[in-house]
Amino acid sequence: MSQGNSDVPVTGEDRSDCPTGDGPFTPGLARACTVREVLDRVGGKWSIGILVAASQGPVRFTELERCVEGISRRMLTLTLRNLERDGLLRRKVYPTVPPKVEYTATPIALELYESLVALTGWAERHRGAIAAARAAYDREHDQR
After folding, report:
1. Which of 36, 43, 52, 99 is 20 to 30 Å apart from 7, CA to CA?
2. Where is the HTH hxlR-type domain (predicted)?
């Protein structure tokens, strides 16, 4: 997976290995690009928290804003839109004033749930060891 936030496209990103529709179709290349993009999306900085929350049942925007620590409203909006576009979330708008909007995990997102919980559990269990390893590495290599 790439570093950084891959929930939104990066302008100017080198996409030369992904078919654009302008060149000849290469099945292996298209398949690799698609897999990488899917992994980047579901492993993105904000996607995991959103998908875990939405897998518990319908969740509203403000609930997601509270439970996904550090996310801005704009990034939440963009990430929700991308997850909906990828078929991982379903958005339902109720005709009320003000409009009520709920997000629900789709069956393919629910299939991911156990893996995401395992991944976040692993990160929680090992964050202290990783922080200690980073500090030791930085001391050894004189970095700050």
Report:
1. 99
2. 33-131
Contact indicator for 105, 89 with CB cutoff of 8 Å: yes
Q: Note the helical H segments in the chain.
A: 27-42, 47-54, 61-67, 73-85, 107-140
Q: What is the pLDDT of residues 94-143, one digit of tens each?
A: 999 998 999 999 999 999 999 999 999 999 999 999 999 999 999 999 86
**Residue for token digits 């590495």?**
137
CA distance 42 to 13: 19
Q: What is the pLDDT of residues 26-57, one digit of tens each?
A: 555 555 568 888 888 888 889 999 999 999 99
Q: What is the pLDDT of residue 40?
A: 85
Closest by CA position to 7, among listed 66, 94, 71? 71
Q: 27-140 — its CATH code?
A: 1.10.10.10
Query: How far is the C-alpha of 71 from the C-alpha of 20, rounded, in Å?
Result: 31
Q: Where are the domains of the chain?
A: 27-140
Provide the 3-class DSSP secondary structure of residue 95: coil
